[in-house]
Amino acid sequence: MYPIKRMAFLLLLLSSCKTPSKEKLFIEEYKLSKYDTIYIVSSISCGGCVGDYFKEKNLNRENTILIFDNSSTNLFIENLKKFKHINISQNILDNKFDNFGNIITLTKVKEDYIMTSYDDK
User: Per DSSP, what are the bridge partners of residue 104?
Assistant: First the structure.
């Protein structure tokens, strides 16, 4: 192979290797890939905001999981903990998702996830 063609081939090969997104890394780290919908709820969220957000959500499905901080004590959040969930510290969640607002939703689309945020502020 000519040097220019070899260089172009290497550049093409390197550019095709994507760095996984923070969502994908989080999902892999906590083994959440079997879920189609992942709700990450901040413990600093107001309960009414979280309550309003989840009023119309169907959380009984097998492919949905909720993630809370260990210190989530709001009554509505405590009621949500009756559904499939895990606890992860707020510091870790803030580090992974840049001090997010109230709720992050990760929704599986094909083999990837789309992240949306809900912040009532």
Answer: 40, 117
> What residue type is assigned to position 50 of the chain?
V
Average pLDDT over residues 51-67: 81
Residue 92 — φ and ψ, nearest 5°? -65, -45
| Confidence tier at 107 by pLDDT (50, 70, 90) | very high
Q: How far is CA 85 from CA 8, 66, 103, 121, in A?
A: 47, 4, 14, 25
* Number of helices and strands in the chain (H, E): 5, 5
Q: What is the mean pLDDT of the chain?
A: 78
Q: Is the pTM of this model over 0.85?
A: no
CB atoms inside a 10 Å sphere around CB 6: 10
User: In this structure, how many other beta carbons lie within 10 angstroms of the beta carbon of residue 81?
Assistant: 13
Residue ranges of E strands in the chain: 37-41, 64-68, 85-87, 103-109, 112-118
